[in-house]
Automatic annotation (TrEMBL):
It comes from Ruegeria faecimaris. InterPro entries: AA_synth_put (IPR009569), BB2672 (IPR035936). This is Amino acid synthesis. It holds the Pfam family AA_synth. Gene3D superfamilies: BB2672. It comes from the Bacteria. The lineage of its organism: Bacteria, Pseudomonadati, Pseudomonadota, Alphaproteobacteria, Rhodobacterales.
Amino acid sequence: MQPNIRKIVTFDEEVLVEGFRAAERPWRMFAVAAVVSNPWAGRYVEDLRPEILAYGPVLGQMLTDRMVTLAGGGEVIEAYGKAAVVGLDGEVEHASGLIHTLHFGNYYRQAVGAKSYLSFTNTRGPANTPIMVPMMDKNDAGRRSHYLTLQFAIPDAPRADEIVVVLGGATSGRPHHRIGDRYQDLKDLGHDVDNPASV
């Protein structure tokens, strides 16, 4: 059993000026999306696992390979995330099923050397629905400079009986980051961040 992939879409954005000021280095965010036939579309299916176990590794490996190539190496990716959008003849559970398994996400985690979990969205919509890929630092969930959201759309996807499965990444955090991070907030509140018992 293999996923029926209609097409693969790549999104790549490089911001040179943010907030009326040049970035020290380009702020690059990118994604690779697979538009896949939804094997459960138009009906209620009790057991989704056979397709999840078959599709997850194929999609996880393929999208990861393309992301690493696009970035120029897994170590270049500092922030990462995932998303899925199911067409109108499917359930949000179907979108979740294809991205919320170790069979899918672990390929990407291992390729970029990550410790943090993959942030995510799973939604339903018609073709050209905005695809939102939330991201965070691959190793430090409290690093707010890398709280990012990549947004793009595919004009003809998802069709009613399709799912768009996406991996996203960034090579840095936001330019001119200046809102602090979670650890600074804790210090401001009088917590000793080096002593977990005080938090």
